[in-house]
Design a protein that fits this description.
Distance between the termini: 12 Å
Number of helices: 9
Largest sheet: 8 strands, parallel
Number of strands: 8
Order of helices and strands: HEHEHEHEHEHEHEHEH
Radius of gyration: 17 Å
Helix content: 40-55%
Bound molecules: pyridoxal-5'-phosphate
């Protein structure tokens, strides 16, 4: 699939909304459009097709595209779904409404410090390295209990849920189930899981927000 034009984007969005509603008729997950590498005009097309939640991986790239889009569309909700370095925290707080990648103590402490100095924090998801892959971001499953308690209870951060990216070459279902079990333990209501290849399975397993890029916009770059 090549990069999609506006009418193809609209068709993809409508098909995805239908599929999600078919799998979970009573409470389908939110459909987030992951717009990394895609142009403002592609983002506009998705907005016109009904998307309100957008995801970007990199603070710099989002800063180049989204201030204007958010100005034109005050109801647009922007999610950071890529790693956040502590030296980018201030920029991220100015732009993003939700951060999905809280994954270490240093970042949690940096967010708490900004809050203590008066910044309003976005809703936060803790990213769990659910497949324990060395190259992947996220808190290790065996450290997740302690870290969730630390961020939520000790630092009083606005943690609303958990996020994961399961290993690519395996059945994602058990990993989604493990993430859901962890969220249930800590009474966290939101689950950020599911991408173009596995959003249907993630939805079956209780995802509340799926992060879909190529199945909306076509191939990247
Ligand atoms: C790029 C990305 C997505 C979307 O991936 P697709 O396979 O294009 O749907 C979702 N989540 C994260 C964290 C990503 O980096």
């Amino acid at each position: 699939m090549d990069k999609a034009d506006s009418s193809t984007i609209a068709k993809h969005v409508s098909q995805l909304h239908q599929k999600l509603a078919h799998i979970m008729p009573h409470h389908p997950p939110t459909l987030m459009a992951v717009s990394k590498t895609h142009s403002s005009s592609a983002i506009e097309a998705a907005y016109l097709a009904g998307i309100r939640h957008f995801g970007e991986n990199r603070v710099q790239e989002a800063l180049a595209k989204f201030p204007e889009l958010k100005h034109n569309h005050p109801d647009l909700v922007l999610h950071l779904i890529g790693p956040l370095q502590t030296n980018k925290v201030k920029d991220a707080l100015r732009l993003f409404d939700v951060i999905h990648t809280l994954d270490r103590k240093k970042l949690a402490e940096s967010l708490a410090k900004e809050r203590d100095q008066g910044a309003k924090l976005p809703d936060l998801y803790i990213q769990v390295n659910i497949g324990l892959e060395p190259q992947k971001a996220g808190i290790a499953p065996k450290e997740a209990d302690g870290f969730i308690r630390y961020a939520k209870d000790e630092l009083q951060l606005p943690v609303i849920g958990l996020m994961c990216i399961p290993p690519q070459d395996q059945d994602p279902r058990p990993f989604f189930q493990a993430l859901r079990a962890l969220a249930t333990t800590f009474q966290l209501p939101e689950l950020s899981m599911g991408m173009s290849a596995d959003y249907a399975i993630a939805t079956e397993e209780g995802s509340t927000i799926v992060r879909v890029g190529s199945a909306i916009f076509g191939e990247r770059g």
